[in-house]
Write a structure and sequence with these properties.
This protein is an alpha+beta fold and 262 residues long. Helix content is 16%, strand content 35%.
Length: 262
């Protein structure tokens, strides 16, 4: 009897609700606790008509990536417990040849210029930009292989990093709003700064207003569409997205975000 009960439990299917920054929610059905995260990741990508590499999944404060594909949903705490069936999903930029165009600098301070499918290093050596069947950049020449998803401003290789070189000041304005009506602006950020940097600035700016503990360095940031008084918040920017840049998140200078306590 116990064996039949155990087998029945593991054969039951469940659903996961995915929540987008737009405020929209969708449901992914037919999941079992023993399924690998790869299964859920692929189903989410198919539901949103995206490639897996374009889908960033956040459960709680944890960012789940391709590196978690071999872990089961049970191991990740999905499908079980309060809130275990909800994940936040964000579309992240895919590193295509178009995104890679322009000037970069590697970890040794060497300047690289990418034009078309060619990368010129220090004006001396030209390497081919390698892409896969989906036109995603997978490497440069024979020695640099892309590791993980790309970014508009940072490319991580297995043995190197490239940072985009910008000639302009790239000043970036973010307006912090609270439910009580307080509005403060931050002008010290750049589009290449991460969400974590924005969160740290928000804590310092609003510590007195929201009675925040500066030592913990945490504040909830909500994505706003339009004027807060009109359309309201549309999605929570989870800490699992903190490694993404403001540019990767699709933020533009002048954007307003709503800040609240836990």
């Amino acid at each position: 009897m116990r064996l039949r009960t155990t087998l029945a439990k593991h054969s039951m299917t469940s659903s996961v609700t995915i929540r987008l920054l737009s405020g929209e929610s969708r449901q992914i059905d037919g999941l079992r606790s023993g399924d690998l995260f790869r299964t859920l990741h692929e189903k989410i990508a198919a539901e949103l008509n995206l490639l897996v590499i374009e889908v960033c999944v956040c459960h709680g404060n944890c960012n789940l990536s391709v590196e978690d594909h071999s872990r089961t949903l049970r191991d990740l705490g999905l499908l079980e417990g309060a809130g275990g069936r909800d994940v936040a999903v964000l579309r992240i930029p895919r590193l295509t040849p178009d995104v890679l165009q322009g000037d970069w600098m590697n970890s040794k301070g060497t300047r690289i210029e990418v034009s078309g499918l060619l990368a010129n290093v220090a004006g001396l050596v030209t390497e081919e930009v390698r892409v896969d069947s989906d036109d995603t950049v997978i490497g440069i020449g024979d020695h640099l292989t892309v590791k993980g998803p790309g970014s508009h401003d940072v490319v991580t290789f297995e043995n190197d990093h490239w940072w985009r070189v910008r000639e302009d000041t790239d000043d970036f304005l973010v307006i912090l709003r609270t439910v009580g009506g307080t509005a403060r602006s931050i002008e010290s950020l750049r589009s290449s700064d991460t969400l974590s940097a924005l969160r740290e600035c928000a804590v310092l700016e609003l510590a007195d207003v929201l009675d925040l503990d500066i030592r913990k360095g945490h504040v909830c940031i909500h994505w706003l569409t339009g004027d807060y008084r009109g359309s309201g918040p549309s999605g929570l920017l989870h800490e699992g997205f903190d490694h993404l840049t403001l540019c990767d998140l699709g933020m533009k200078s002048g954007i307003s975000v709503l800040c609240t306590r836990d």
